[in-house]
Amino acid sequence: AIASAASDRGSYVLNLFNIRDTIQTTNPYVIQANIPQQAMYALAERALATQFEGYTPVILRNVSGRNEKEAFTAYVASCCQSRGVEPVVIEYDGALRAAELNALPVDMGQKYVVIPSSGTLAEFNKMAYVVHNWRDRIRAMSLETIDPGSAPAVEVFGYPDWTAFRGDALDLLHRMDATVYSRFLDNFAGFQAMGVAQAFKRWYGSAMIESVPTQALLGFDAACCIIKNLRANDGVFDPLYPAAYNGVQSSFRFEREGEGGFVNSSLYIIKFASSGSQSATVL
Q1: How confident is the model over 115-161, as pLDDT tens digits?
Q2: CA 198, CA 35: separation in Å to the nearest integer?
Q3: CB 65 within 8 A of CB 126
Q4: Computed from CA positions of residues 283, 246, 187, 14, in that sequence, does the dihedral angle turn out positive or negative?
Q5: CB-based contacts of 155: which residues, under 8 Å, 6+ apart?
Q6: CB 248 within 8 Å of CB 214
Q7: Cα distance between residue 250 and residue 266, in whole Å
Q8: H-state helical runs in 83-127
Q9: Most buried residue, 50, 71, 252, 283, by most Cβ within 10 Å?
Q10: Using CA atoms, how far apart are residues 43 and 186, in angstroms rounded to an integer?
């Protein structure tokens, strides 16, 4: 109803909340602020292939688990096969065992990037410690290699769900130097986020509720994007100029979708570092 009324009036609607809605494909005044799933998969797979060139994907699948990310792992496998790379699929029942990873050859300097088929905390706990220990063992072997270019290596690539991890799970992400893709940048300790959090508490008398995404930061980024766009265009909103807005938690780069409205094409690639910090690149 909102989109229809906006179309009649020639006004834009910025859809922040309904990720799966596709009304922008037919309504030229609707702006989908979330990158669609298939476009997100394409950018994430491209980042995976670029950052871990020469690595063989190791897809982990718990046969008795949720495996709700199988659409992504199937897409990754298809892309790899089209490039002549055959992924390794390890299926386990219940919990991953060290022997299943130790069976992979590393004597010729093989490099692997581990991609589980679930992003849930429960499934993460069933495989992460084993992957971490295997990665540490391979890294120890690499230190003994005379030629660093021929040393074996293990990396971990995961999901937006992981950005909500706290406690031991978050610590493990850092210790594994894990890489994830996400629509949102969850970095509450960052300088910008802390500044907004302090201002929020000063103005409203209570702290922001932390979630992924944090709704207060989502509103802050959306408002800043709109205000800066209006200022750049003398009070007229133009989805295509300025070309991009990189905010505290969200980035917006709108592109027209066919003959319809506009869709965000931005995606974060987030790196957890063993030092405890994290960095992000906007694609």
Answers
A1: 999 999 999 999 999 999 999 999 888 877 767 667 889 999 999 99
A2: 29
A3: yes
A4: negative
A5: 52, 55, 111, 112, 113, 114, 135, 177, 179
A6: no
A7: 9
A8: 98-102, 121-125
A9: 252
A10: 19
Largest CA distance in the chain: 69
Binned at pLDDT 50, 70 and 90, residue 211 comes out as confident
Each residue of 45-89: pLDDT tens digit? 999 999 999 999 999 999 999 999 999 999 999 999 999 999 999
Count CA within 13 A, CB hemisphere, residue 271. 13
- 276: three-class secondary structure by DSSP: coil
Tell me the per-residue pLDDT of 11-27, one tens digit each, with 9 for 90 and over: 999 999 988 899 999 99
Whose structure tokens read 């009649």?
8
Pairing of strands 153-158, 262-264: unpaired
Q: Which residues contact 50 (CB under 8 A, 6 or more apart)?
A: none
Residue reference for tokens 């919990």 = 95
Q: What span, in angstroms and rounded, lies between the C-alpha atoms of 245 and 233?
A: 14
Phi-psi region of 54 (alpha: psi -120 to 50; beta: other; left: phi over 0): left
Dist CA 204 CA 225 (whole Å): 22
Distance from C-alpha of 168 to C-alpha of 225, rounded to nearest angstrom: 35
